[in-house]
Every structure is written in C-alpha cells, then in structure tokens.
Amino acid sequence: MVVIANQDGTYSLTERTQNLTADNQAINLNTLIIQTSRSNTKKENSPQVVTVITRQQIEDQLSINSDSSQALSSLLPAYSPNTQKLNNSSQTFRGRSVLYMVDGVPQSNPIREGSRSAHTIDLAMVDRIEVIHGASAVHGLGATGGIINFITKSNRSNEVKQHVDVQLTTPTDEISSDTLGYKIGYQVEGSADNFDYLVGLTNEVQGIYLDADGNYVGAATVRGDIMDSKSHDAFVKLGYWLTDDKRLELEVNKYRLKSRMNFTGVDGDRENGVATSSVKGTPPNGVAPYNDVQTTSLFYTDSDLDGMEFKAQVFHQDFEGRYGASNSNSFQDVSIAPVGTLYDQSQNQSEKMGAKFSLTKDDLLNNSLSITTGLDLLQDKTSQTLILTNRTYVPETEYTNYAPFIQFEYKPTERLVLQAGARNEHAKLDVDTYQTVATNKNTSVSVNGGSPSFSDTVYNAGAVFKLTPSMSVFANYSQGFGMPDVGRILRGVSTADQDVDTLIDLSPILTDNYEAGFRIHRNAFDFELSAYQSNSDLGSRIENQNGLYVVKREKKEIHGAEASLGFQLNKEHKLQASYSYIQGKSDTDGDGKVDTKLTGADIPPNRLVTSWNARWDEKLSSLLQVSHAFSRSFDDEDLHFDGYTLVDASVSYKLPVGKMSVAVANLFNEDYFTYYSQAAYANDSFYFKGRGRTLTLAYGLDF
C-alpha cells in the first residue's frame, strides 16, 4: 500500500501497483500529517498554528498572479504584504525572519541576507505549502518567525499523463506589447514497474506594470524586479521503490529569473506624494539583475526499519543573486573615481551542502509515545562581490553547523497530547583576514579573520487538550535559532585591525516564542484563535545611516494574535476569513527596555483576508477574495501607513477539451502605495505604487 497526497491536503491509501488516479477506490485518510514537523505530527495535534495551503488553493492563486510572494500574502495575513518586487526585503512572518524551504532544503541565505530567497521555485511545481507559525528549531537556522516549506509535486499515475497550460496577463487599459505578460508550462508524469517520474517546465515573460492611473510602476533598478523580466523553471523528480518499504528519490530544480532591462527607475518625491516611476530605456550602467538557483536533493526512506521509520536526505544548492548598478555610498573609492561617480553592482554567491537524518519510533508504551531523533548537518559558503570593479564586498564566510535533536509526543489519554523536544546547535563561522571596500567617508581597512563559534540548546514544549471531540485548546513554548546578517556586519567594519572573533554583533539570535489558543472543527465549521509573544534579547534590525544600511543589535519584543474561520455553507460554497494583529517594539537606547515601535521593515500591518469559493456545477467554479491592510502609525511620522483594500476574482470553466479560467486582480483598480514603500524606508527611490487592475486568461489541457 502507498500513501498518496491529495490536492485537498488529505491523503489516500492505495495499492502501489494500481493506477494512481482519482478514479481509484482508495481509502481516504482525512488526518493530515505535517511533513515539516519531522515527527509525523498530525495537524490537529500541533501545539502551534499550522497552515496547509493545498494544491487547489495554489492553482486558484496562480490563476490571478504568478508571483509566489503574492500567493503567500493573499493567504497568510501574518505574512507581510507583497513588495511586488524580486527583492523580498521587509517580508517578515509574525515580525521575524522566515525560513523558506523546498522539500526541507533551506532557501534562505541568513549569512548574507540579500532578501531574494522568496523566489527560488515556480509554484507550478509545488503540490502544497506547509506553514508553521512562530519560532521553531525543528529545521535550525533562520526560523525565528516561522517556516514556509514548499512541498513539490510527485507522480500520481502509472500511465503517462501530460499537462500543458498557457496564460496571458494584461492591464485592462493602456494595453501594449510592453505591458503584456505570458506564461507557458508543461508537465509529464508516469511510472513503470518500481520506477516513477515527474518532469515540469515553465517559461514566463512579464511586462511592465501599470498603476491604477495607467502610469508605469517604478522599476527597482538596483534591488531587482519581477516586472519586465523573463524566468524559467526546470524540475525533475525521479523515484524508485527498492522494496515496498524502501524508496529512493532524486529531485533537481533549476530556477532563473532575469531582468530584461527595458525600463529604468526614476526617483519619486515622497514629500509631495509623487511615486517612483519608470522610463523606457536600458539603465546606463551595469548588466541585468537576476536570481539563479539550482537545488538538488536525494532522499531515502525506510518505513519499516525494525519497526521504525528512517529518513535521510542529502542536498546541495547553488544560489546567485545579482543586483543592479548604482553609485551607492558604500561603493565609492577615491582611488578609482571621484566620490559619487563610481557605479558598481553587487552579486551574492551562496553554496549550501547538507544532510538531514531522522529516526522515528511511534508505537512505544502501547502506542502512546512517539520518539523522533536525528541529526542535521549544514555547510554554507557565502560571499558578495562587486562585479564591475572586481572587488570583494563581503569576504567568503563559511558557516558550519551540526545539530542533533530529539522530539517526544506522548498521549497519556485520548484527550491529551504532550510534545517536547530539544535541539543542540553547534555553529562555527570561518572568515579569513580581509580588506573592506572604501566608502565615501572611510578608506579601506584591514580586518583580522577569525573563527567564532557558538553552542546553544533550543527547546520546545507544548500541549493540546481536547475539551470535546471537536474542540481543543493548545499552548506552546518554542525557541528559534537565527543569525544576524553577518555579511552586512563584516562589510560595515570601519575601524582597522578589529578581530572577527571579538565582534559581539556576530552573536546568534535566540527567540523565545510563547503561544496559546483554541481550535474548533465541527462538521462544516472551522475556527482557530491564538495569541503569541515573541522575545529576543539580541535581535537584528536594519537602519539607514547616511546612505549606508547597517545592522543594529537590539532587544526586541513582539506580540500578536491570529484568528481563522472557515464555514462550508453547503457542498458548493465555502467562506473563509483570517485576521492577524501584531505590535512590536525594540530597545534603541540600550537601557534594557523596549521603547521604539518597529517599522514596516520589521512587522506587517494588521490584516484581514476573506474569500468565497463556489462550485456552481461540475464545470463552473469561482473565487472572490478580499485583503484589507489596516492603517498603522510609527514613531517616525514619515513612515505612516495608509491602509488599502484589494479585491481579486476568478472564474474557471471545464470545456469539452481542457479548462479555461478568467481572473481579475485588483478588481476595483485600487490606487495605493505598497506597504513596503510607505512603512519600511523613507526613500524616494523605493516609493512604489501598487499594480493596478489586470486581466489574466488561462487555458490548461490534460492528455
């Protein structure tokens, strides 16, 4: 028998030799196992809030917008509103860093956080998205705010099945070849004997965006943009059943998004409400920004190793993120050119190699105790170069980490589930002696290399108590382990002969997360409410100092609440609503007390997202979704945020051959500045308006 993931997030049990299609008379297993938990935890038994975005929800979002960050923002109110740019700076989750993963492989680059890790895979390759809300140490480095794990598609059929789809996106006025976007995708899957496969290809071209007034949206010439870009994704997954219990699986994903450089950004004027705009023409300096990522994984699973389940994974990732050219203060060197005249552009390189091992025994004490133990290994080599002058901007930094962990789940009664665990982090940084790049005020200085190391144990403990079969309460304490932006710290050293070993700013971020709530699942009604507190004694905040962005290490406290409601009116209609409330402060004067409101660079606005899904008959279905971001004020009056409401709608219809969908994003053509533009940084170059109304036509065919 084989467990097959269904599109609705549940699982089915079927014979492996059968044709794995929807026509099978499979046994449906409604209990959803959270793969990201690593300990076979059922969703209903999780002491943390967990969201599973199903394949159907992903397809609904893709019919409206192909941007993965927009899909997450539309479904997760605690996730910051989409920047609508390649750069995902300020897109936090519950006010802290997100660990993005693809099938458990970390995509984030915390050693030199270039804010590009949200765009490493096309959602067309993703089966579901598992989201753990709040700090978690189950996967180690980077998950101080939560984990977003993209679970890729797997073969579902013994027969060869193919799928092709095409998509066209256009504004509803000012239509031209510059504003059109299109996408084409192809997938094939099947199996023969013990071997199965899935191959996917996508190619997308995006045009320039228009705001609600029909004007060009400002191009993020330096940080990188999604509009006016070309991207492709090639995905391969090969599986082989060694026996009925043992499986080997190889997965490779190659993703590249590159600017077409047809437009150049023009600074706006925040004081007078003039948005950053774009003009047609190639930027005068540099080469095209891009994201280029290749992730390779090899999995081995033995579901019956002397009555235990063994999982092993080895992975490798090459990541390159290139930014656009600018005459930034941090690039200036009078020995090369007069101050203010030197243009350069930076490029991040990160190579990760790692392995994950886990062993689970879940039938102890008469099936009441489950124990999972394992070991994670990671090596991350990261550097940043200035490619036009061939200078080292951030020296190669090698981060090595090994972390044994253990996790317990105990059910003393049918109504009570207790969970606890510990993870022992051993981390080391290796940096050779290096020379900093001169800035407009400082000459280059020498910094002595070093190998600072850290060893900390992070803990978690939680409980779920079922008041009734349909109602439960939960509470959880979990610690998260993260690093500050080491690369930004290293490149910002201005005093000669400092030692890397003595830079306290390299100390890790330990986050304590407390959470409590309750959930109800009764027939057609679902409700969940939770409140949380997230504290760190040595947080990380980016601050602009005379044009240079530096890392400030400060105490940080965040608290908030989340609520979600789902109601199945009948078999055809479902209503959903989710709300996130969040507040946060940091200690900016060093007196040990938090005193300054966190800005939009750190925390999202309070948000409400609602949706109505309707299946009118076997052929016709529709989606209407509304997202409202509430206004927010900050201590810095220049960062006041005026809220806005976005409405999206889509309709799909099954034709005699294939399926067609029509979607309208920003249905009422809301005229607004993005949250990032208003609330993160008061910068005329980043004062972007949001995208106006667009129409997307799509057609898909299975054969």
Question: Which key features would you list for this structure?
Answer:
single chain; 703 residues; mainly beta; Maltoporin, Chain A; 22-stranded antiparallel β-barrel; five-stranded mixed sheet; 4% helix; globular
Topology, pairings included?
Blueprint: E1 2-5, E2 11-14, E3 27-29, E4 33-34, E5 41-42, E6 50-53, H1 55-62, H2 68-75, E7 98-102, E8 105-106, E9 126-133, E10 146-152, E11 161-171, E12 181-192, E13 195-206, E14 229-241, E15 246-259, E16 263-266, E17 277-280, E18 290-305, E19 308-322, E20 346-363, H3 364-367, E21 369-386, E22 391-413, E23 416-431, E24 434-435, E25 446-448, E26 453-468, E27 471-482, H4 486-491, E28 498-499, E29 509-522, E30 525-536, E31 541-545, E32 548-552, E33 556-568, E34 573-586, E35 596-597, E36 607-615, E37 620-629, E38 644-654, E39 659-665, H5 675-679, E40 694-702
Parallel strand pairs: 7-10, 25-28
Antiparallel strand pairs: 1-2, 2-3, 4-5, 6-9, 7-8, 9-10, 11-12, 11-40, 12-13, 13-14, 14-15, 15-18, 16-17, 18-19, 19-20, 20-21, 21-22, 22-23, 23-26, 24-25, 26-27, 27-29, 29-30, 30-33, 31-32, 33-34, 34-35, 34-36, 36-37, 37-38, 38-39, 39-40
